[in-house]
Design a protein that fits this description.
Elements lengths: L1 H19 L6 E5 L6 E6 L2 H4 L6 H9 L9 E6 L3 H10 L3 E6 L7 H6 L3 E4 L3 H13 L1 H7 L10
Helix pairs in contact: 6-7
């Protein structure tokens, strides 16, 4: 569990970087099967890049570059992954997802678990507070990000 919290610290640093840039504070990191190698890290850049597909998990995945296999890798994210990012995990066979919190948003992690992806939900208070504060001060941007008024489960 200590290793998961160490990995989460990388994702939290990314979330804070995104917030400092005026974006949505969601961060992610992709770790290799060896448990020590950081393959890629990133944060939600939808606002900064005017790109609705640039979620934190997508940014970390892209930063990792092409891998021969994603078997055994771990995606670490500050917030439960949306359906889009859950699809990325399934498509490329990422084995584990470590989630900072699912209180402010419950994405596709139950679906991932049903399809043999190991899910570790940390219920991290820092991640919850970061998102609650953001949502409180940026409700319109949050509703845009989660697809309010669109199909439930997108962010």
């Amino acid at each position: 569990m200590d290793l998961f919290r160490t990995w989460l610290a990388t994702a939290v640093a990314e979330a804070r970087a995104g917030l400092a840039e005026g974006g949505i504070p969601i961060g992610a990191a992709l770790y290799a099967a060896d448990g020590t190698t950081l393959l890629g890290r990133g944060h939600n850049r939808r606002v900064q890049d005017d790109d609705p597909s640039m979620h934190a998990e997508t940014a970390a995945f892209r930063a990792a570059g092409r891998q021969r296999s994603y078997r055994g890798t771990t995606m670490v994210t500050t917030l439960s992954p949306c359906w889009y990012c859950s699809g990325l995990v399934r498509q490329f066979g990422i084995s584990r997802v470590v989630i900072g919190e699912a209180t402010t948003f419950h994405g596709g992690h139950d679906w991932l678990a049903e399809h043999d992806v190991e899910i570790v939900l940390l219920d991290d208070p820092e991640c919850v507070d970061l998102m609650r504060d953001f949502i409180k001060h940026n409700p319109a941007l949050w509703n845009e990000d989660i697809g309010s008024g669109v199909e439930r489960g997108h962010r």
